[in-house]
Design brief:
The complex is a heterodimer of chains A (533) and B (160). Chain A has 533 residues and is of the alpha/beta class. Chain A is 23% helix and 17% strand. Chain A is built from twelve helices and 16 strands. In chain A, strands 1, 2, 5, 6, 7, 8 and 16 form a seven-stranded mixed sheet that branches. Chain A has a six-stranded antiparallel sheet with strand order 4-10-11-12-9-15. In chain A, strands 3-14-13 form a three-stranded mixed sheet, with helices on one face. In chain A, helix 1 runs parallel beside helix 12. Chain A is globular and about 70 Å long. Chain B is mostly helical. Chain B has two domains: 97 residues, no CATH class; 42 residues, no CATH class. Helices cover 55% and strands 0% of the residues of chain B. In chain B, helix 2 packs antiparallel against helix 3, helix 2 packs across helix 5 and helix 3 crosses helix 5. The N and C termini of chain B lie far apart (74 Å). The chains are: A alpha/beta (533), B mainly alpha (160). At the A-B interface, helix 2, helix 5, helix 6, strand 4 and helix 9 of A face helix 5, helix 6, helix 7 and helix 8 of B.
């Protein structure tokens, strides 16, 4: 078959949260930028949440696990070597198509965990280098929240007021006031008032199925329309096989396949990886060459290592009365950072945050929800009635520490539809995480009891929660123990950038998306400032 | 074949009071329909039916499967629950016995009931300095005026 060749200036791989932000920023600076995305555009107007069998769709074609969903754009991720399973989406918008849009920021200490607390690795940048970019991103995505959180550095005013607490959330907030624990209405990329073509959230529940009203942001409705209007190019149905390099070791472009099976080579001055913490190392490991025998830019052997996922123990409280737990955006209303910072009096390093989740319908509840155990058989209906609509779950996001054996590798025994080797996840809980989980479960249980829950049910971690993928091409000053520098450029291959969650040196204890978007925006500015494009 | 699947699903989801049994609402037929769209599920459903046929003399066939093949049981349970809980009849029962509306979440959404709760008057600024001069400077400014409204331009200055 003839291979089709073309040439561009900056080539971005992946149209998710990071790729969209980077592309928009570079296009707004007048740079020619092209993005390749293996999936397609989504159609919010055809949201599955308006269908009678919406919950059936939730566990099938909208499953967050690509190995269950098996869409044409999904690639296999072997996960029998990982206790936490992958949760990603492939398409324009990436995993923001299925996310819950909870957007707390890293705290300043999160960037200096080694210097401050003697664990993990420091970033070569600080919170203050990203503060401006967090604000730009909040504006682009549209952020609800409340001004004045004493738990975090100051921010500019939020786009709209916070999402409502809900019945259970209100009770938990009152309990937090009694306990005198930190809490604050969460920042989220969910609008509570109309903004342009996006409508205010109507509390329908299952954000992770895609938002019919556009209240919940995804980058296909925020960054991408603006990037395209500025002249950026987005090619969908483009599956990247590998990044090409020359005899000097420099990246020269990428080899990709379109949906008809046609092979392409797109030559580029700069190649930018934004394929998430699994997809990016998969492609770069598949890009080994004579000059880069361990994978492109991988002389340090750090590529794929230090996978951090956030172990998330969950505790569900059951209340006597109906708290309508099926209503409201599903993942958050308030966040609790009482146990966030390191405390040497505890038996673990670093800390965790808690958030109150809700929004589960009948089928998901019957299957156990986050942490219920509803029996099958003669007691099933009685127990279901006791739980349905009467529960609130506190999810505990534990900071994960980097470990070289928690990693992403490639496994050529399984391939995708274009014979590209699969990714494999390797992940086990470290002792520090286990101790933190125990502490978090106790805190969440105490909180729910204080809020009036008559029974609680805990799970030490949510096995399906592999949605925060970090660390597999980490940022650092030392080329021997990191993959990219402070500008997101490969130490080995200066015209190769990684801008997604792979570059995180630490995981913090919060959702990573606003931070990875801020990192991507900054990387675009630095590329322009250094006159590399 | 559907007889043995009816028996199995009725063990999982027996009728009780207001709740129909699985066979009353044809859960086994719905399971087969759902599986038709997915080749992997077709294979698993065939394995399930084989198991049920082989163990048809067993009194408690669901419990037998749960012990003998937990993965196949988990598949069968999810498929049966999916068929049961997406049934209009069951949705009606849920709506009658809770405050849940028997309709999809969209386009109407749900009113989120709550009452305002103000965060307690927390003791000062709670985030930790990273040890940089910038951190100390912002901490002091925030401590001095916690309710100040910051502009993006002011925040941009923190980079320097």
């Amino acid at each position: 078959m003839t291979v089709l060749h073309d040439e561009v200036n900056v080539l971005v791989v992946g149209a998710g949260a990071a790729g969209a932000a980077f592309t928009w920023r570079l296009a707004s600076l007048g740079v020619e930028v092209t993005c390749l995305e293996q999936g397609d555009w989504q159609r919010p107007e055809s949201s599955l949440t308006a269908l009678k069998n919406w919950e059936s769709k939730r566990i099938r074609e909208r499953s967050p696990n690509p190995n269950i969903r098996r869409n044409p754009a999904d690639y296999p991720i072997l996960d029998d070597t990982s206790i936490i399973k992958p949760a990603i989406y492939n398409g324009v918008g990436g995993s923001t198509i299925l996310w819950s849009a909870h957007t707390p920021r890293f705290r300043p200490s999160d960037f200096r965990v080694q210097s401050l607390d003697g664990v993990g690795a420091d970033w070569p940048i600080t919170y203050w280098d990203l503060a401006e970019y967090y604000e730009i991103n909040d504006e682009m995505m549209g952020t609800s929240g409340l001004h004045g959180d004493p738990g975090n550095p100051p921010r500019a005013p939020r786009t709209t007021p916070p999402v409502p607490l809900g019945i259970a959330g209100s009770r938990i907030a009152e309990a937090l006031n009694e306990l005198k624990w930190h809490w604050w209405p969460s920042d989220g990329n969910i609008l509570t008032q109309d903004r342009g073509s996006r409508r205010a959230c109507n509390g329908c529940g299952p954000c992770e199925m895609g938002c019919a009203t556009g209240a919940r942001a995804s980058v296909d409705i925020t960054y991408w329309p603006e990037a395209l209007a500025l002249g950026a190019e987005l090619r969908t149905g483009a599956t990247v096989r590998r990044v090409l390099s020359d005899a000097t070791g420099k990246a020269t472009g990428v080899e990709w396949i379109d949906i008809t099976g046609q092979e392409h080579v797109t030559h580029a001055n700069i190649v930018v990886m934004a394929g998430n913490g699994i997809g990016t190392p998969r492609i770069l490991l598949n890009s080994a060459s004579k000059e880069h025998p361990r994978g492109l830019g991988n002389s340090s052997d750090q590529l794929g290592r230090n996978l951090m996922l956030h172990p998330i123990p969950v505790v569900t409280g059951v209340f006597d009365e109906d708290v309508e737990s099926w209503s409201g955006n599903d993942a958050f209303a308030l966040l609790i950072q009482e146990f966030y910072e390191n405390n040497d009096a505890r038996d673990f390093k670093r800390g965790y945050e808690m958030q109150v989740t809700r929004g589960q319908g009948p089928l998901i509840t019957a299957l156990g929800g986050f942490s219920l155990d509803i029996p099958w058989g003669k007691d099933h209906h009685e127990v279901f009635e006791r739980y349905f609509g009467r529960v609130a779950t506190v999810a505990v996001t534990c900071e994960d520490l980097p470990h070289p054996n928690n990693k992403v590798t490639i496994d050529s025994t399984v391939t995708d539809r274009f014979d590209i080797p699969a990714a494999r996840m390797w992940y086990e809980l470290e002792e520090n995480s286990k101790r933190m989980i125990s502490h978090g479960v106790k805190s969440a249980t105490d909180l729910l009891r204080k809020a009036g829950a008559r029974e609680t049910h805990a799970k030490p971690f949510a096995p399906a929660a592999g949605f925060h993928l970090m660390g597999t091409a980490r940022m650092g000053s030392n080329p021997e123990d990191s993959f990219v520098d402070q500008a997101c450029r490969s130490h080995d291959v200066p015209n190769l950038l990684v801008i997604d969650g792979s570059v995180f040196a630490s995981a913090a204890a919060v959702n990573p998306t606003p931070t990875l978007q801020a990192v991507a925006l900054r990387a675009a500015d630095l590329l322009r400032e250094d006159a590399l494009v | 074949m559907s007889e043995i699947l009816d028996r199995f699903t009725n063990e999982l989801l027996p009728g009780s009071g207001h709740w129909p049994s699985a066979s009353e609402i044809q859960v086994s037929a719905t399971m087969q329909k759902f599986a038709e769209s997915d080749p992997q599920q077709q294979v698993l459903l065939a394995q399930l039916l084989d198991f049920l046929e082989i163990h048809s003399e067993t009194a408690a066939i669901a419990a037998e499967l749960e012990i003998a093949d937990p993965d196949l049981f988990a598949f069968a349970k999810v498929l049966a629950f999916e068929a049961y809980y997406t049934s209009p009849k069951v949705r009606e029962v849920i709506a009658e016995r809770s405050r849940y509306a028997n309709r999809p979440p969209q386009p109407s959404g749900f009113q989120v009931l709550s009452h305002a709760v103000t965060p307690w008057n927390q003791d000062g600024i709670l985030w930790r300095s990273d040890g940089t001069e910038r951190s100390e400077r912002v901490l002091k400014m925030q401590q001095k005026d916690p309710q100040k409204t910051w502009t993006v331009e002011e925040i941009r200055q923190w980079q320097h």
